[in-house]
Design a protein that fits this description.
CATH topology: Fumarate Reductase Cytochrome B subunit
Order of helices and strands: EHHHHHEEHHEHH
Oligomer: single chain
Strand order of the largest sheet: 1-4
Helix content: 55-70%
CATH class: Mainly Alpha
Membrane topology: Multi-pass membrane protein
Shape: elongated
Subcellular location: Cell membrane
Keywords: Cell membrane, Membrane, Transmembrane, Transmembrane helix
Main location: membrane
Protein name: Cytochrome B6
């Protein structure tokens, strides 16, 4: 492994709970997509429940987690987002100046959380024969009209998720190939190299306990599992 150059410094960027959430969500979404194509409904449902637990965890972590994982840190006003986007064509923006998500990326995180959250929740109430006459665990508590609406949301919203995922992947590859900034590596190992003069910005990140994050994630998983089990009777 190469070492930082004299004018660069390795800084910690993403905490373990954020990285665990990110890659667990990737695995859950890919699993849900694949099992949907293969009509493997039981695994598809488990993937959906996993997504729901992850979303609940991320929402909580967005308030009690590390400082750069909190919504208040990366959700900015429209002016900052527009100014950031306008800098993209002339190449004057750089992720090296952000100790977390950039203004546009921050809102992309929220959009993704909302989209996958809607997908997971709608699946709880869906009832259809596409998946071998599968009924969601909460379908018995709503009318057939509501179940029909949830079916429509479930089948329509997935296309928005595909679009959001595609945009997210494109942005990561754009920075890797065009800007020569490896954002993917940072979300894998949690650190990145920045110019020494910018390292101070990253030193201001207040990291929450990874143990707290893991405990919260386990609690969220147990809540979802318990709720589904009770609903199934």
């Amino acid at each position: 492994m190469s070492t930082p150059s004299a004018d660069e410094k390795k800084v910690k960027l993403w905490d373990f709970p954020v990285r665990l959430f990110h890659w667990a969500l990737v695995i859950a979404i890919v699993t849900a997509w694949w099992t949907n194509r293969q009509v493997m409904i039981d695994i598809h449902a488990i993937a959906g429940y996993s997504v729901l637990a992850l979303v609940i965890f991320r929402i909580i972590w967005g308030f009690v987690g590390s400082s750069n994982a909190r919504f208040a840190d990366f959700l900015t006003g429209p002016k900052r987002v527009i100014n950031y986007v306008l800098k993209i064509p002339n190449g004057t923006m750089s992720e090296l100046t952000y100790a977390g998500h950039n203004p546009a990326g921050g809102w992309m995180v929220l959009v993704m959380i909302l989209l996958v959250g809607v997908q997971a929740v709608s699946g709880l109430f869906a009832s259809e024969d596409t998946f071998l006459f599968f009924d969601g665990p909460l379908v018995a508590y709503v009318s057939s009209d509501v179940a029909s609406i949830m079916n429509w949301i479930h089948h329509t919203n997935i296309n928005l998720i595909y679009a959001a995922v595609g945009l997210h992947v494109f942005a990561a590859l754009f920075y890797l190939v065009v800007k020569r900034e490896n954002l993917i590596r940072a979300i894998v190992i949690g650190t990145r190299r920045v110019p020494v003069e910018l390292a101070g910005r990253f030193a201001n990140i207040r990291f929450a306990s990874p143990v707290l994050g893991i405990v919260l994630l386990i609690i969220c998983a147990l809540v979802v599992w318990g709720g589904v089990t009770l609903a199934r009777g």
